[in-house]
Design a protein that fits this description.
The strands form two sheets. This protein has a seven-stranded parallel beta sheet, with helices on both faces. The protein has a six-stranded parallel beta sheet with strand order 8-13-12-9-11-10, sandwiched between helices. It has 15 helices and 13 strands. With 405 residues, the chain is an alpha/beta fold. The chain folds into two domains: 205 residues, P-loop containing nucleotide triphosphate hydrolases (Rossmann fold, 3-Layer(aba) Sandwich), CATH 3.40.50.300; 162 residues, P-loop containing nucleotide triphosphate hydrolases (Rossmann fold). Helix 13 crosses helix 14.
Length: 405
């Protein structure tokens, strides 16, 4: 379906055309008409499907011609990276519409706080905020949400995983009851449905393919020991000299520096980014990555849902993600907007069960690639090995339980 078929106004269509988009994605095609019709929705869609524009476009359509500066729309997100990303997308899509927006998040200096305070106190059309920082402002007593007409919770599952449930309850209690609420989540777990029952009114449910990497992602797995990983990455990168944008994910921020050091010793310039950096430092790394000045970044999972950079050629999972859903989000950084990309996961002997969980979730076997001969042999994966480990784990649990009883 073309965007012009979705009954968006001319200013919005002009901005979409200016950005080079013609056809709506499935989530946009399904969500936009319902949002324009003022229905509450609960939408389950994976990363990289265009869900941000799915809620921004109809909201901008409704805001066209708005005359006052009151806060009309509150978008709550789990991370500052995602807040910045969404605010930038609002700026691009509202190029021909007189709409103001402000991202509210932590990690800045006093000037950032003052700018945020001004936007919340004096009003701006759209506020994009992380829960903790927004609550800090609310507690100061100057935030006026009395005219909010739209509430959007994006990456709702991640916010609950990060422990923001109570903060969300407090923030939502400050909003008018008569509003449109849009809940977007990558999963439809019980806790998401419980939240939906609390805050949505007769919602329309939209569910696309859940937890599946985009079709354009070429996935593969190397079974290797930890001491083989840096040498293996050197081999992988040496074979892909044409790649200009590469992300290496690790589960621990302590490992970021180790990996960066190992890569640099092997002649690969790379930059680490984790919560150890302040906001300006992280944004500078992302600017360098977007402009291709930085070819390789090493990141923790805080980045997996918080960046929107097109044409990322390769994602390497240095550590197998603990949560199978996180695999989808990491891999979702590449092959966005119908492009092609590659995702390689390094699996050590301790992570066999994680690999099995990932393959079960995505309902596919990820092709295994043999290690280069010069690296020696790696561990071997088999279903029986995983089952044996599960059984031994269960025996230990039973033994502990029987002892305690």
């Amino acid at each position: 379906m073309k965007f012009e078929d979705l009954k968006l106004n001319e200013q919005i269509l002009e901005a979409i055309s200016h950005m080079g988009f013609v056809n709506a994605t499935p989530i946009q095609e399904l969500a936009i008409p319902k949002i324009l019709n003022s229905q509450d929705i609960i939408a389950c869609a994976q990363t990289g499907t265009g869900k941000t524009a799915a809620f921004i476009l109809p909201i901008l359509h409704k805001l066209t011609g708005k005359e006052d500066n009151s806060i009309d729309t509150l978008i709550i997100v789990p991370t500052r990276e995602l807040a910045v990303q969404i605010e930038q997308e609002i700026q691009g899509l509202s190029y021909f519409v007189s709409v103001g927006s402000k991202a509210i998040y932590g990690g800045g200096d006093g000037k950032n706080w003052d700018d945020q305070k001004e936007a919340l106190k004096d009003g701006t059309d759209i506020i994009v905020a992380t829960p903790g920082k927004l609550l800090s402002h609310i507690n100061q007593g100057y935030v006026d949400f009395s005219k909010v007409k739209h509430l959007v919770l994006d990456e709702a599952d991640k916010m609950l995983d990060m422990g923001f449930a109570q903060d969300l309850d407090t923030i939502i209690s400050k909003l008018p009851q008569n509003r449109q609420t849009l809940l977007f989540s990558a999963t439809m777990a019980t806790k998401i449905r419980d939240l939906a029952r609390k805050i949505l009114k007769n919602p329309e449910e939209i569910t696309l393919s859940i937890s599946k990497p985009a079709e354009g992602v070429k996935q593969s797995v190397y079974l290797c020991h930890d001491n083989q990983k840096i040498s293996l990455i050197k081999h992988i990168l040496s074979e892909r000299t044409e790649y200009t944008s590469i992300i290496i994910f690790t589960s621990s921020k302590m490992k970021v520096n180790e990996i960066v050091t190992g890569l640099r010793k092997n002649g690969f310039k790379s930059t680490g980014v984790s919560s150890n950096l302040d906001q300006e430092e992280r944004e500078e790394v992302l600017r360098g990555f977007r402009s291709k000045r930085i070819r390789i970044i090493v990141a923790t999972d805080v980045m997996s849902r918080g960046i929107d950079i097109k044409e990322i050629n390769l994602v390497i999972n240095y550590d197998t993600p603990f949560d199978a859903e996180d695999y989808v989000h990491r891999v979702g950084r590449t092959a966005r907007a119908n492009t092609k990309g590659e995702a390689i996961t390094l699996v050590n002997e301790k992570d066999m069960r994680k690999l099995a969980s990932i393959q079960k979730l995505i309902e596919a076997q990820i092709p295994q690639v043999k290690l280069p001969e010069e690296l020696g042999a790696g561990p071997e994966f088999s279903a029986s090995t995983v089952k044996t480990k599960k059984k031994s784990w269960k025996k230990k649990v039973k033994k502990v339980v029987s002892t305690e009883l």
